[in-house]
Amino acid sequence: MTQTTADSSAPARRQRAQIKERTLRTDQWWRYPLVTFIIFTAFLVYATWAIFDNDFFVAPYHAPFASPCLAEAVCEPDARLFGWAPLGDWYTWPPGLLILGLPAGFRFTCYYYRKAYYRGFWLSPPACGVNEPHSKYTGESRFPLILQNIHRYFFYAAIVIGLILAYDAVKALIEKPGGIGTWVLIGNAILINLYTLSCHSCRHITAGRLNHFSRHPVRYRAWTFVSKLNSKHQELALISMFSVMGADLYVRLVAKGVLSFPFA
């Protein structure tokens, strides 16, 4: 009978894999987290500025970061959603403070964006095969990362915001079909809605819980379409981020008089 040592018989403790070397990589692995940090920081800086900028509407163009506008005090009649101002005149803060938290929450909890900012900002880890500065790992089981689980609810809100941006684009098309800004808003609305529909939660909601696709042919076709979009989720997340920032900046430049005919 062979004798078993105490160490070998004890159950293995669950520990995070440790890499003694700083990295096992030979390529320029640092480029992805660095570029991610620069791009996301620039977007956050712009979004913060846009929230407090008052030049967000020039008929018929509405800046995406300030849509919908629901208060009489800060929204001229043509800027209000369906002419509706449920907040009356008591709300005097920028409209972006009310609504930007919804699409921002959707992106912040998005599966792609989690990967991106975990690597670019928290270095958890900065790249595969690279040592990280964190000694403990709890995943998304504790506050604040446990809030990532409400991603599905932000998805519902993002659907509404996407439809509102589509409405703004169609309104611009009707009122000014030859305007460059019209096509800027249309392109942005398309990309925003494609990104939203490519969400993993959308794929699951569409038909992810079905056991028999043959019994649900319509949902299966929808699931197939969403699955194709889902394979491009990363690309759509980045492209739509640039498109919404570009469209928002374009409208504000027109509203400020920086851009005028024929560029408006």
UniProtKB/TrEMBL annotation:
It comes from the Bacteria. The chain crosses the membrane at residues 29-52, 90-113, 153-174, 180-197. Keywords: Membrane, Transmembrane, Transmembrane helix. This is Integral membrane protein.
